[in-house]
Amino acid sequence: GNSVTQMEGPVTLSEEAFLTINCTYTATGYPSLFWYVQYPGEGLQLLLKATKADDKGSNKGFEATYRKETTSFHLEKGSVQVSDSAVYFCALRNMDTGRRALTFGSGTRLQVQP
Amino acid sequence: NAGVTQTPKFQVLKTGQSMTLQCAQDMNHNSMYWYRQDPGMGLRLIYYSASEGTTDKGEVPNGYNVSRLNKREFSLRLESAAPSQTSVYFCASSQPGLAESYNEQFFGPGTRLTVL
């Protein structure tokens, strides 16, 4: 079946530090990959996405590259801000299984200190 | 556009009580979903509705029922609440299409449910 594994948090960084949140997946075929962000007290918002190998998704300074050879989709940002403090979820959708719903990782909490 | 709305925002129940969580979307999406979010486990799919008039079980459907009342509304019912159902519940919607594998799911703000 499908599964997503994320690094455990919390991740605590100082402002302007480099961020990496690791995400690896297990799926048959060619899933689409997503990063969602959840700010305190809110629902999830799509941050970025990629549908095929070597695609790079990017948004708001965040980037992630779909690596099929390592089954990974790591999230990176060159310089984090306090406003980036949130929980980040990696997710996949595998249409090969006919399933529209997303499979989520457990989430990684990011705390950015001034 | 309000997007995806959920009511109530918070609810406390006693074991054995019943309640219905409401969800509505104004984006004319065909597909709607109910997830639960528990600490350290991410979001897990309870039920989904691919289109009006259809519903299917997800990963964790036991103890829940759903109704796709019309295209806009998708409700989740707990017939006899249990402490194991204490969680945050999220409704989501999406629009299938030619690029369905790529389509974004839009989430509501969530309902925080505590069962005592």
Word description of this protein:
The complex is a heterodimer of chains A (about 110) and B (about 120). With about 110 residues, chain A is mostly beta strands. Chain A contains no helices and twelve strands. Chain A has strands spanning about 5, 10-15, 20, 25, 30-40, 45-50, 55-60, 60-65, 75, 85-95, 105, 110-114. Chain A is globular, with a radius of gyration of 14 Å. Chain B is mainly beta and about 120 residues long. In chain B, strands 2, 4, 5, 6, 9, 10 and 11 form a seven-stranded mixed sheet that branches. In chain B, a hairpin with a 6-residue loop joins strand 5 (about 45-50) and strand 6 (about 55). Chain B is globular. The mean pLDDT of chain B is about 90. The chains are: A mainly beta (about 110), B mainly beta (about 120). The interface between A and B is medium-sized, with 23 and 26 residues.
Oligomeric status: heterodimer
Largest sheet of chain A: 6 strands, mixed
Please name the two chains that share the biggest interface, counting residues whose Cβ lies under 8 Å from a Cβ on the partner chain.
A-B, 23 and 26 residues
Shape of chain B: globular
* Category from helices, strands and their pairing of chain B: mainly beta
**Helix count of chain B?**
0
Q: What proportion of the residues of chain A is helical, as a percent range? A: under 10%
What gap, in angstroms, lies between the N and C termini of chain A? 41 Å
How far from one another are the termini of chain B?
36 Å
C-alpha Rg of chain B (nearest Å): 14 Å
Q: What's the main sheet of chain B like? A: 7 strands, mixed
Give the overall pLDDT of chain A as a whole number: 91
Dominant shape of chain A? globular
Number of strands of chain B: 11
